[in-house]
Amino acid sequence: MPEGTRLRVIGVDPGLRITGWAVIGLEASRLIYVAHGTVKSRDRDSLAERLVQLFDGLTAVIAEQRPDEAAVEETFVNRNPTTTLALGQARAVALLTPARAGLPVFEYTPNLIKKTVVGAGHAAKEQVQAMVRILVRGCPVVQADAADALAIAICHAHHRTAIRRLQAAERTAALATESRP
Fold first, then answer.
1. Residue 29: per-residue pLDDT
2. Is 91 left (phi over 0), alpha (psi -120 to 50) or beta?
3. 138: enclosing H helix or E strand
4. Which of 86, 85, 64 lies closest to 10 in space, CA to CA?
5. Residue 178 annotated in active site
């Protein structure tokens, strides 16, 4: 990335009640805090209405913050299938919203996010919050959902170069295969 160029990444921590989001800037190898927050849905509303609330909230955040790429946490399987299904539906909104805005969307497992940010895949939330404040310049103390979203964005920032190289290699291999007689 040329000197002075800033790429914006939005990290999204999906949840049906509260979806955390955070935007960081990447300038060379520095991570710069931009913004964070949450999108909430009303518990008393129907599932469809709650998903619309999440979609509308994330759409507004993306329009305001204008990220270049999005990273979303993958869902872990919960013991309660109803809870897992609801989280999966919220995650679908978290994937769909940036994709509809034309952003490339990347997914990361919770363990990879924690390992990238803290160095241990089973780190406690407090450890993640502490490391987020250390790694992102200018980052204020944030609540858990937004701290998780910042961790997701940090994870993507660290892995995006490798992902881009892999995608380019796959495209080159596909073109080479297509051009053979």
1. 77
2. alpha
3. none
4. 64
5. no
Active-site entry in 145, 148, 170, 178: 145
Q: Which of these is catalytic: 27, 73, 107, 178? A: 73
For residues 38 and 129, what is the distance between their CA atoms, to the nearest angstrom?
Answer: 16
Distance CA 35, CA 42 (A): 23
pLDDT at 2: 39
The residue extents of the domains of the chain are 6-179
Other Cβ atoms within 10 Å of 158 Cβ, number? 16
The pTM of the full predicted model, rounded to 2 decimals, is 0.85
73 has catalytic annotation: yes
Q: Where are the beta strands (DSSP E) in the chain?
A: 6-13, 18-27, 30-40, 69-73, 105-108
CATH number of 6-179: 3.30.420.10
Residues lower than pLDDT 50 in the chain:
1-3
> What residues contact residue 158 under an 8 Å CB cut-off, 6+ apart?
116
Residue in this structure with the two tokens 């990444």, named with its chain if needed? 9
Q: Is 148 a catalytic residue?
A: no
Q: Extract the tokens encoding 52.
A: 């619309």
Give the model's pLDDT for residue 119: 80
